[in-house]
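Predict structure. Chain length: 62.
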Amino acid sequence: MKKVVVISTSLRPGSNSHALAEQFAEGAKSAGNEVELISLKWKEIKFCIGCLSCQKTGWAVS
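Prediction complete.
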């Protein structure tokens, strides 16, 4: 068994892209894999501000 992560990046509810991600996840599950489906729809994703903190500390800043 493998661990599979499926990331849906669509921002529109009921989009074809998200439906495709769901179908892919179901196919992976039926093949006996452990599957996690992550949707970015309600996530707040910020752009890089170029502070270089991640390079100084070796860790991404949230």
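Summary: The chain has a mean pLDDT of 90.
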